[in-house]
Amino acid sequence: MSRLLFVHASPRGPRSESLALAETLLAAAAPESVDRLDLFATPPAPFAADAVAAKMEVISGAEVAPAHQDAWAASLALADRVRAADTLLFTVPMWNHGVPWILKLFIDTISQPGVAFGFDPETGYSGLLGGRRAVALYTSHVYSPGVPPAFGTDFHSTYFEDWLRFIGIQDIATVRLQPTFPGADFDQRRAQAHAEAAALGAALRPAAVGAR
After folding, report:
1. Is 29 left (phi over 0), alpha (psi -120 to 50) or beta?
2. Considering its fold, how many domains does the chain have in total?
3. Which of 21, 106, 134, 145 would bridge 88 by S-S if both were Cys, CB 3.0 to 4.6 A apart?
4. Mean pLDDT of all residues in the chain?
5. Residue 173 domain boundaries
6. What is the phi/psi pair of residue 8, to 5°?
7. pTM assigned to the model
């Protein structure tokens, strides 16, 4: 691993459990370079009228109109940070059973025709960002896998990994710390999640990857 993009999607600063997991993984991975994108600190511009118009112009095969070029350029600049990386690390806390709105904005901004996906009327969509690996660190305060619906439903990992595959990324690793609600076994589960993050980071070290 030589170039890693770390996309952080929690506003909780040092109280973020997902951020702590990411730092554990990064310390073990020791990538040659890390591009840190804190979405709440430096949020993408809203993907609004001009950006949508530019996207539809590209899909239709037309030139991007001058009035829409700035919005389109902003989308491409963010996508370029993804294309420059060979490993993508995401913190994905659960918000209302799904991903945080700021992470959805990131997804909508970079998921552009000719950039993240192609489309053929006969065969459908094809991802254009394959050849990369992704790591998703999932946290939630109440939900945990296997709980009854009264404790939440997992639309965040299912949606997020579907999006990764949509853009062509098949090499997906995950670490879960769920729930983060205080309990008798929380410290043990947190320690286990950090051990998993450290082991995954070690496996991503340049020498370890090269030895595959």
Report:
1. alpha
2. 1
3. 134
4. 95
5. 3-210
6. -105, 125
7. 0.94
